[in-house]
Design a protein that fits this description.
The complex is a heterodimer of chains A (610) and B (197). Chain A is an alpha+beta fold and 610 residues long. Chain A has helices at 11-45, 92-96, 128-141, 167-193, 195-210, 214-279, 286-315, 381-384, 485-495, 520-595, and strands spanning 49-57, 62-72, 75-90, 100-108, 111-112, 323-326, 336-339, 349-360, 368-378, 388-395, 403-411, 419-430, 434-435, 441-444, 447-457, 460-469, 473-476, 500-509, 514-519. The radius of gyration of chain A is 40 Å and the shape is flat. Chain A starts with 10 loop residues before the first helix and ends in a 15-residue tail after the last helix. Mean pLDDT of chain A is 84; it is low at 598-602. Chain B is an all-alpha fold and 197 residues long. Chain B contains nine helices and no strands. Residues 1-26 of chain B have low confidence and may be disordered. The chains are: A alpha+beta (610), B mainly alpha (197). At the A-B interface, helix 1 and strand 7 of A face helix 3, helix 4, helix 5 and helix 6 of B.
Amino acid sequence: MAVKIFRWKAIGPLALLLVIIGVLLWLFAEPVAKDTSEEVGTELLGTQVDIGKLDIIADEASVDLRALQIADPFNPNKNLVEASEIRLKLNPTALAEKKFVVENFRLSGMRFGTDRKTPARPVEGDGFAPQALRSVRQWSQQFDVPILKLTPIDTIKQLVLNPTQLTTVQSAQALAARADSARRALDQSFQQLDVKGTVDTARTLVERLRTTNPRQLGLDGTRQAIEDARATLERLKDAKKRVETLERQVKGGVGALASGLETLDEARRKDYAFAKSLLQLPSFSAPEIGEAFFGRVSIDRFQQALYYTELARHYMPPGLLPREDPGSQRLRASGKSIRFPKERAWPKFLVQLGQMDLAIGGDSPLRGAYEAAVQGLTSDPWLYGKPTVVRTSRTAEGSAIASIDVRAVIDHVRPDRVKDSASARLRGVKLPSFTVPGLPFQLRPGTGSADLTFALRNEELSGRWSIGSSQVTWALDSTGKKLNDLEQLVWRVVSGLKELSVDARVSGPLRSPKLAVSSNLDRAIAQRLEAVIGEEVAKAEKMVRAKVDSLVAAKVEPVKRQVSEVRTQAEQRLAVERNRVDDVEKQLQAELKRLTGGLVPEIKLPKIGL
Amino acid sequence: MTFTRPLAFRIPPFRPVDGPHYIPPMFALLKLIQSIIKTLHSDGTPGQVAAGMALGAVLGLTPLMNVHNLIVISLIVLLNVSFGGAMLGWALFVPVGFLLDPLFHSVGLQLLEAPSLRRLWTDWYNTPLIPYTNFNNTVVLGSVVGWLAMAVPIFFAARWGVARYRATIGARVQQSKFYKAITASKAYNVYRLFKPE
């Protein structure tokens, strides 16, 4: 019996199965898309993303998002942005290629920095965003922000220092070991030099030639004597080369030891600072006071800007090479999904144009004219060919917020010219209060202005954050702790100030940037502190230096002598070896000249470079 | 002319949950075992069973929720292969798939990163509908390629195994109480629709 290939009667059930799948897709597409969008958004941004409702409008190729909330990754109790409705018009052709191209979007009810009803869940795991968040937090820890210590001078009784804690002592011990090692290496090198044997042979030859007369030797005997002299001169030449090589080694080794001595001076300066920190001496240096007051809060602003820049650099890479992304989560291994961008094709993600232009009137504190635009936000900037531009502005004279002007340009089009820059200019905004690290003071800047500019060109960072206010108030910590004399002094200075002007700058390579903070408070506080405690602090610093010197000298001086001895001995031994070779060489040359005085010109003497 | 409803649409009458004929979900596994045992004994030639197993293996070896598996299920239903064999192949190769995932990832990654294939992948990636197959995922591509490589050996091994089973212990198993108990249930009549002819 022939076996049939097709099972025609199963077409009906199969069609039914496909219909059921279609119905299930239709029924569950929106909730699945909503959950997936929340999940993907949360993973991409590294912060909780909530969508109240998602409607798919198939006939318009649109998606309607309602009650969108994106939590602030740096403050789980706040929303970074909240929007009551976003209508995304998608490109159906791109969608057929599984690409998400937003031709335009309309946005309404957008608010920034709103309070959350429930704190956002921290995003954990190995996704890029959590890693970036951890990295920028680590980055922000590298700044050595001083804490203003206002310990009364009269509490400084004595300084107890353990010599093993001092960098100079550790460095001196290490240098002594290196000097010993260098001495042993040099001894070994001198032994391997083997100049003595060559010199003794040459000297014996010289003695023998001195007693010979060329007339008695005859032609063959003289020729043999000359050849012996030439061969010995060659050996002397080799010995001389060995001495020169050793001389270079000695110079290198002794030079390294000398630079080691220089690092001891640097280590001693660090030890002064370390010992001073143990005493917790108050600083009256204006830059240090500025950093102590506003360093940490400035770094917080820069780290936020850096976080979003890092996300942009990861999700918007330049160039046209294939890119790896983690595969979607499933019970099986996720693997990696690789994107293959192609010229003149759609990017994987693109917001061609998003605009918001509206005005809120009446007495609402939100009244004003709003304008926002996002252009060219894409996963493949090279395909789009132009930088991404984000622009938001609001103008409303006399309202709670007078004006906001935010601009950002993300230029990842060319791999050799990656540049991200953002600027935010806020006028008439209520500036957040913050406490001064290490002091029981709280600064309430009131309404004022704030500016932030941030740029990252390849790996070169530059940023500036400034705030200004003329309505500053100060409050003491609510713990009711009694202020000491110095704290009272600083309190008197700051509490009389109604104006505030802070300027913080960060610049340099991304891996090791420099922070500089200045404010109008610095000089005022520094002058008052110097007038009151300057003399006492100077005395305490002198005591610190003396204490460190006394502990360090016992370790450093022997090492200095040891290094000097190694250098002197090596140079003396080198000079001795060099002179021995030179002397015998001269003598041999003289004998050779005497021997060749009456010979035919074809006998050429070897040339030795001296 | 009398209209006879196809067997597939004979929906059993509603029965109360605690009624005597109610089959709890945990019996699903039992049903599967029943279909597999029946397959081994009588449903189709060894070749049909083996072809079903080779096709069913893809459901176990590759991540299930992918477009290619919809095509494979359609083939299992439409082609005159053993449906039970396909279920057996699926059940057998699910753990194999999990075990081989690292290997599939590695194979998929090498293929997707091969410079000579980049143009092909780029064309596919930018062609409508093809990206929905998730071919650009290392595990999906690696497992499909792995299945393609294993399908023919699976077919021949399964055909030999089924033939040997029927020739040796098949008759004894058929007489066992276990087999009779398993095959006694009538809940699997739907399955007969896919019985090879």
